[in-house]
Write the structure tokens for this entry.
Amino acid sequence: MKLKNTWVGLTILALLLLAALAFWINGARIANMADRPNAPPSVPPSAPVSDSTRRSLRYPESAPQLAMIQARLLSASPVPLGEPLSARIVYDEDVTARVAVNLSGRIVALKASPGDVVKAGQVLADIDSPDFGAAAADVGKAKADEERKRLVVERAKALVAGEGIAAKDVEAAQADWAQAQAETARASLRLKNMNPFGQSVQGQRLGLTSPISGVITERNATPGLEVSPGMASPLFVVTNPKQLWLLVDLPESFLGRVKVGGALAVESDAYPGETFNASIAQLGQTVDPNSRRVLLRAKLNNAEKKLLPEMFVRATLQQNSGTGVSVPNSAIVNRGIYSYVFVQIGPGEFQRRQVKLMTQGSDFSFVGEGLKGGEQVVVTGALLLDAEMGSRADDKP
């Protein structure tokens, strides 16, 4: 019994010693942590460092999140009145000539092809026309008859002075001469109508010339083609491709906000991301009863000749004053009644900003306050950045 009590006492003593040793080790660890109060916690290499004061995130260069974030340089531009409208490009009729004929004949030679640059008065085709030959002959006959009757009048005046003929014969000769002059004028006007631009003439063959300088965009003339007045299509279309018209179907609700001289921004699927400028030249005077739209005509600047007639484009009406930054809706993060975007302020560093939207469309919105042109805005991955930053109590506008 005595030996058993001894072993029990030793066991209790050993447990007390182990408890004292554990207490001492834990106290030393606490004291060691107290000596280093500002030591930062261990951060995984890919975790962002958040700065709550500037509401920004900074990623290390090797962070995998950067592969899912894309920033783009956005510039300021005039604020549109609304969503883009469907529009169609056509020839500018002020600088376009549709060359046709007003006589019957046959094309015997072509002197120009589509795409050629021509000058005013340059021959486009040679036409053999019996009608033109007959009209030229009529002019010659009329002039000869006029000259003959002029001589008759001169002889009659000489004879009447010596009382060789009666005065009434002189008057009759003068009347015949006047009729001959009228016939010459009529024949000349008919010939000029057949040859309005002074084309080169050789017998009954005349050269069809361009009335203006420009580029041949269409040619319906072919060798040996029989031509006549009233053909369905012109033989040649000559125009200045640097000037075009833009036809826009304008909703009648926009009429009060649109004025002649206003600006439009034109976009085409053929040139993604590129904008062309146009100015309003005329507003239609009637409303289409079916579509409830008004035809708007604008002058389109096509200095680089990228746009072509009959292309379908999108036209956006611009406000007369005020500019903003066009931001894709994917870059905007909404929190209640407030909107935010993320701006890249350095390599791997992104700052969240509250912005004020001026207009909001289906794909793009215009930001008026909180963002300026020329900044790198996150267009892909804004929700990821917002989730990384998290919702904090100090995130008040």
Q: What stands out?
A: The longest strand covers residues 312-328. Helices lie at 2-35, 130-161, 167-194, 382-389.
